[in-house]
Each structure stands twice: as structure tokens, then as C-alpha cells.
Specification:
Rossmann fold; globular; six-stranded parallel sheet; two-stranded antiparallel sheet; single chain
Length: 386
């Protein structure tokens, strides 16, 4: 067994209805005033009701910022950081999916580290040197896993690319996992965020940087997603399915926080910057075809993926069993009725050169199980084009 270090600094608090105890959780970290970061869709629902009631019962002052947009841009994050600075708050609570949580991680970092978030993105001029303002996350989707990780993905519109701020100091203090908040999630968002979580688990599992601990978490996340995602999409009110998907998302994120990601995320992140395809949708499109390319990099592990997703490999050769893994993922995508082709989401072959350029620059491509060249990226894109 190779040497490894496993990090999981975010505390998980899970419970049906636990979001109603948010004030007590904030008080544990000395909160005097809370800045709640969310988006315009959530503010129109009843998701915040129990959270607001908790603060009001505890007489804890709070302020809500609800103008987060999907794939927050550098300028947006810098502006919100100023709003937070002027608010007098000492604790941030992020309620939502990956976009509100990534924005919150960034603005918390900017309270204690000078400059623009642009300075701290991959390849930027600055490194995070001071611990961030306290951040507590309440995810409302089971997919991004951002509540568990040390990265925040921010869009650079000027260069049409998504980049990350990455440092252990930006990891949230607590992930408050409440499956009740997931019940109203639309089927398509449930499906694409669920396959995003599956992508995290699979890429972490086959990563060259995987360890025995990240493998255990990734495999269990796959088992849960394979068992419960279809039900969560078909019947969003099923609390058992919602609960298991919520936990699967968080433990898959813990796995990739330690094991890393690969070509699927390289392409998806690049595609998001060039074509503004939502991250979960991009992963859903690319995952089966990238797996087909990566199978030869670790046949044994791809066999285990197939088993985790419920495939019967009895009597099959190692290669035949491994090949069932991408087939199982494609069937899951079909069953969940996610977009299956790039042409369905507005990506054209004219976009390919920029997508490929961004993919080849992706820092985690180095831990993909197969060493890839530009032609490999072209082949993957062509397979999921039309």
C-alpha cells in the first residue's frame, strides 16, 4: 500500500430538519451576525423558512444576499465581498448548490486576504495566507459537494474559462446536510447534480492519486447513487432516496478532495467557460465516453465500478466486466433523461478548439488514469456530439 494523507476538515452534521438548528450551529463558532448567501430561485421557495425562524428565535441578527447567479464571475464575487465587508457580519451561511457555496467560500477568503478573487485563481499572483471568515454550508442539491472541499470554481468571463481558488483555509467549518431541503428540487437538476456526484466518485476512485480511504468513500458513494438516484428523480418526495443521495454527494466530494479528479472535469470546466453549459449537465454528457477511454488505465477498478452500480459480472473476463462500467453509467443517464448529446445543449464543433485548449491546461489531468493527448479529447467530444 502506498503512503497517503487523508484530509476531511469539514464537519458533517446530518439530520432530517437539521437546518432548523442553524442558529445553534453558528453560535458554536461565536457568531454575532450572520450573512446568508443564496440565489434568486431559493429565495422564491420555502427553503429558507426554517433557517430564518432559527435565527429569529435565537435573536441572532442576519442579512440575506440572494443575487447569486449560476457560475459566479470574478466581478460578481468581488462585489459581494464588499457587501459582506460592509455588513458587519462575522459568519457566513451558504444555502444552495455549488454556485452559492463557491461564491461564499471566495468572499469569506477575501475578508482576510487582500485583493480580488482573480489574484487567487489558478495561475494568479497571490496565495491564500490567512484563514477565511467562518463559513457554514447548507447544500440544497446532492451533487457539487462543494461543502466538503478546498476549492471554489469561479468564472473568468474575460478569458472564457472557469478557474479555481484552492486552499485548505477555504474549506467550510460545517456541512449541514438536511434532505428536507432537497425535496422540491426539480427532476432534471436532481439528475444532473446526481451524476455530477457520481463523476466525483468515479474520477476519485480511478485517479492516480487515490488511496485506500478515498477508494472506500468513492465506492460507497457509487453504490448509493446507483441505488437511489433513479428514485430521487422519479419521486422527489422520497426522503430515503433524498437522504442517501445527500450523503453520497458529500462523501464523493471528500473522496475527490483527497484523490483528485480527471478528464471529465477538465472538459466540463472548460466547456462551462466557453459555452456556459451547466456543470452537472456537462459531466452527464461526457462521463460515459471518458470512461470508455479510461477503462484500459485500470481494468480492475472499472470492474469494481460496474459491480458498485449493480452490474452482474459473473462469468465475464476482466475486460468484459470493466466495459460494463461506462455502459451502466450511460443507462443511468438515459433513465434519468438527462441530455445525451452536445448538440442538445448548444455546443458546436466550432467550440472544440477552445474546449480542448482549456482541457489540456486542467491541472488535475495529470492524475487521470490514462495519459491523454489532444486527439483523445477530440475523440471524446465527437462520441458525445450527436
Amino acid at each position: 500500500m502506498k503512503d497517503f494523507v487523508f484530509r476531511m476538515p469539514a464537519k458533517i452534521k446530518y439530520g432530517v430538519g437539521i437546518s432548523g438548528s442553524i442558529a445553534a450551529v453558528c453560535a458554536e463558532y461565536g457568531a454575532k451576525k450572520v450573512f446568508v448567501v443564496t440565489d434568486s430561485m431559493i429565495i422564491k421557495t420555502n427553503i429558507l423558512d426554517a433557517i430564518k425562524e432559527s435565527f429569529e428565535k435565537a435573536n441572532m441578527p442576519y442579512e440575506i444576499y440572494s443575487d447569486i447567479v449560476p457560475d459566479p464571475a470574478i466581478e460578481t464575487v468581488d462585489a459581494i465581498a464588499d457587501v459582506l465587508r460592509k455588513s458587519g457580519a462575522d459568519t457566513v451561511v451558504a444555502v444552495g448548490g455549488g454556485s452559492p457555496i463557491d461564491a461564499a467560500k471566495s468572499i469569506c477568503m477575501l475578508q482576510t486576504n487582500e485583493g480580488s478573487v482573480r489574484d487567487y485563481l489558478f495561475g494568479g499572483s497571490k496565495t491564500v495566507t490567512n484563514p477565511s471568515m467562518t463559513l457554514i454550508c447548507v447544500p440544497t442539491t446532492a451533487g457539487s459537494g462543494s461543502e466538503m472541499t478546498a476549492s471554489a470554481v469561479i468564472t473568468d468571463n474575460q478569458n472564457q474559462i472557469k478557474l479555481s481558488v484552492t486552499h485548505d483555509y477555504i474549506v467550510p467549518k460545517v456541512a449541514l446536510i438536511d434532505p428536507l431541503l432537497h425535496v422540491g428540487m426539480p427532476g432534471m437538476i436532481t439528475a444532473t447534480t446526481g451524476i455530477d456526484a457520481l463523476t466525483h466518485a468515479i474520477e476519485a476512485y480511478v485517479s492516480l492519486n487515490a488511496s485506500v480511504v478515498s477508494d472506500a468513500m468513492a465506492l460507497h458513494a457509487m453504490r448509493l447513487i446507483g441505488k437511489y438516484l433513479r428514485t430521487a428523480v422519479a419521486n422527489g418526495a422520497d426522503i430515503e432516496a433524498r437522504s442517501n443521495m445527500a450523503i453520497a454527494s458529500s462523501i464523493a466530494a471528500a473522496a475527490f478532495f483527497n484523490g483528485g479528479l480527471g478528464v471529465v472535469h477538465g472538459i466540463a470546466q472548460s466547456m462551462g467557460g466557453v459555452c456556459h453549459v451547466p456543470h452537472g449537465v456537462a459531466n452527464s454528457l461526457i462521463l460515459p465516453y471518458a470512461m470508455e477511454r479510461n477503462v484500459v488505465g485500470n481494468l480492475e477498478k472499472f470492474k469494481e465500478i460496474a459491480i458498485a452500480l449493480g452490474e452482474n459480472v459473473e462469468g465475464l473476463s476482466l475486460r468484459e466486466a470493466a466495459d460494463l462500467a461506462p455502459a451502466a453509467v450511460l443507462q443511468l443517464a438515459i433513465d434519468c433523461r438527462v441530455p445525451l448529446k452536445l448538440v442538445d445543449v448548444g455546443v458546436t464543433r466550432e467550440h472544440f478548439p477552445e474546449i480542448i485548449k482549456g482541457t489540456m491546461a486542467y491541472r488535475l489531468l495529470a492524475v487521470n488514469p490514462c495519459k491523454l493527448v489532444e486527439k483523445d479529447i477530440v475523440d471524446i467530444l465527437e462520441k458525445c456530439y450527436e
